[in-house]
Design brief:
alpha+beta, five-stranded antiparallel β-sheet, 27% helix
Length: 326
């Protein structure tokens, strides 16, 4: 049952709507002082660190329409509230989308995957070792651009750019699969390519979610001919991706390669596979990356592993084994 909003605005702290319309109404009543919550696995961590303290948490978990997972018109439609565990457990997903399955299995632990949602993973907050710390830690070292300061603690530049990393696990795979998303806000319901959801800005890294927008669903076309996925992180069950690479080549030879963890938003490289060379691919990846030392793994190591993964991808797609297992 949907929770009623208290008459005193200062007392409004939690809403449990049963429909998207109710959720939008709750958001409208808060004048921007709110956060949507799906599984809560990201939001609760940020609240514990004192990074987000919204006047209202709008819990979307009771909206049944956002929990549907269905195949239609040779495509897969995933409701934003489908959990990672539900995605992994679906037999047709396991058979038709092994790349998506692999990425979902790489997220955290089985317990967390029972709560974490597909939509929540796509909208996960960017990470930086100087920002995602406790309030007392941040107070001791001085606040950063993304918090309340005017200097980036990674680059030392005042009034510059925030380079916090995009760390979604499903985003690179879904971008490689050329997925689209449907969004509803106070004004309309519309669909856009997933690639248009992200912006290369460490602070305002999401687009098209203004006017209290809610991510409703994700549509993925039929799987492609060749696929590849790798994820680098320090601890498999705890850490977000320090680097991830996902790639697909369709029957026509069109390739989509998505890199994540190396910039403020996913980096997408597209082209015709027959026209690409490995040196060109590595060069384009390095030119598009925005690597800085804002991760537990050093920048130089992540740069090296980017080349290693791209070399492995190249040999896998050409049906060859890489010359080394670096």
């Amino acid at each position: 049952m949907s929770s009623a909003l208290p008459s005193d605005p200062a007392a409004r702290f939690y809403s449990l709507p049963e429909s998207v319309a109710e959720a939008l109404a709750a958001a409208r009543s808060c004048a921007g002082e709110y956060r949507y919550s799906a599984g809560g696995t990201d939001l609760q961590v940020l609240r514990g660190q004192g990074l987000h303290d919204p006047a209202m948490v709008i819990d979307l978990s009771c909206i049944r329409d956002l929990r549907e997972l269905r195949f239609q018109d040779s495509a897969l439609d995933i409701g934003a509230l489908v959990t990672l565990d539900e995605l992994i457990s679906n037999l047709r997903v396991r058979q038709a989308y092994p790349l998506l399955l692999e990425a979902a299995l790489s997220v955290a632990t089985p317990v967390i995957r029972k709560t974490a949602t597909v939509g929540g993973n796509l909208l996960v907050s960017n990470r930086c070792i100087n920002y995602n710390q406790s309030r007392s830690w941040r107070a001791a070292v001085g606040s950063c651009l993304r918090d309340v300061g005017d200097t980036c603690l990674v680059t030392g530049v005042r009034h510059g750019k925030c380079f916090s990393r995009h760390v979604s696990d499903l985003a690179p795979v879904l971008l490689a699969l050329d997925a689209a998303v449907t969004i509803r806000n106070q004004n309309s319901t519309f669909s856009i390519p997933l690639s248009k959801l992200y912006v290369q800005d460490g602070i305002r890294f999401l687009s098209h979610l203004e006017h209290d927008g809610i991510l409703l669903s994700i549509r993925v076309a039929a799987t492609t001919k060749h696929c590849y996925y790798r994820k680098l992180r320090l601890r498999q069950s705890l850490d977000f991706a320090s680097l991830s690479v996902a790639a697909c080549v369709d029957a026509a030879g069109v390739v989509r390669i998505c890199l994540n963890g190396i910039a403020m938003a996913p980096v997408l490289i597209t082209g015709t596979w027959s026209d690409l060379s490995l040196p060109d691919l590595i060069k384009r990846a390095r030119l598009k990356s925005k690597l800085v030392d804002n991760d537990l793994l050093p920048m130089a190591y992540r740069q090296e592993m980017l080349a290693v993964y791209l070399e492995e991808l190249w040999h896998v797609f050409h049906g060859q084994r890489p010359e080394s297992n670096r």
